[in-house]
């Protein structure tokens, strides 16, 4: 397969006359890392869409073998479309797959690869409305019973408390009770003196 390999080069030869890199501890770590990176680690995944595809290394197709893409629980199975392009096999699941999950790509009786098909991530968009946009939405629809608060104010907790509980009048009520009790006790005390 052309165009998919990797080449690692050193700026200095490994000859001890020019460098001690071959005897250094980094040499082992470097060669180990090159070996790790030379492995194929591509994950086959795609979104569920008619235009989506995932790519595999090209394989030799012979006879009338047919690709099949089936879920791992074998409840859904489709024949995907594919194109051989630039040394790769591009497989398109097509519009028939509606459930996300892991799917097996088989050619005849051989399993070629496993691919993960996921729902589109548009619902995970974290953009939010501005305050003015929210006010416009609430104002345009009378069926929406909502209030929009400015979250940047320091008194937001107080504003929310007033909105949920209403104006708290118990302090005024307690104050008036104490005043009326004082008035009543004064009236009783002085009324009895004047009456006798």
Task: Provide an overview of this structure.
This protein is α+β, with helices and mostly antiparallel strands. It is 30% helix and 20% strand. The chain is built from four helices and eight strands, in the order αββββββββααα. The protein has helices at residues 25-37, 131-140, 156-165, 170-195; strands at residues 45-47, 54-57, 67-71, 77-78, 81-85, 88-92, 101-107, 110-118. The strands form two sheets. The chain has a five-stranded mixed sheet with strand order 1-8-7-3-4, with no helix packed on it. β3 and β4 form a beta hairpin. The longest helix has 26 residues, at 170-195.
**Elements, N to C (H/E):** HEEEEEEEEHHH
Extract low-pLDDT stretches. none
Mean pLDDT: 81
Structural class: alpha+beta
Largest beta-sheet details: 5 strands, mixed
Q: Main sheet: which strands, in order across?
A: 1-8-7-3-4
Sum up the overall morphology in one term. Answer: elongated
Tally of contiguous helical segments: 4
Assembly level: single chain
User: How far from one another are the termini?
Assistant: 120 Å
Percent of residues in β-strands = 15-25%
Report the helical percentage.
Answer: 25-40%
Number of E-type strands: 8
Q: What Rg is obtained from the alpha carbons, in whole angstroms?
A: 38 Å
């Amino acid at each position: 397969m052309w165009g998919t390999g990797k080449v690692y080069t050193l700026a200095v030869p490994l000859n001890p006359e020019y460098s001690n890199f071959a005897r250094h501890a980094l040499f082992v770590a470097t060669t180990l890392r090159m070996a790790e990176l030379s492995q194929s680690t591509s994950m086959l995944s795609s979104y569920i869409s008619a235009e989506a595809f995932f790519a595999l290394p090209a394989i030799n197709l012979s006879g009338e073998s047919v690709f099949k893409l089936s879920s791992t629980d074998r409840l859904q199975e489709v024949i995907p479309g594919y194109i051989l392009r630039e040394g790769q096999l591009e497989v398109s699941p097509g519009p028939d797959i509606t459930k996300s999950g892991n799917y097996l790509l088989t050619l005849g009786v051989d399993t070629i690869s496993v691919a993960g098909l996921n729902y589109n991530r548009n619902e995970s968009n974290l953009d939010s409305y501005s305050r003015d946009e929210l006010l416009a939405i609430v104002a345009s629809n009378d069926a929406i019973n909502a209030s929009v608060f400015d979250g940047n104010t320091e008194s937001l907790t107080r504003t929310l408390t007033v909105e949920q509980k209403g104006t708290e009048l118990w302090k005024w009520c307690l104050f008036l009770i104490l005043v009326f009790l004082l008035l009543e006790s004064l009236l009783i005390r002085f009324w009895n003196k004047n009456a006798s």
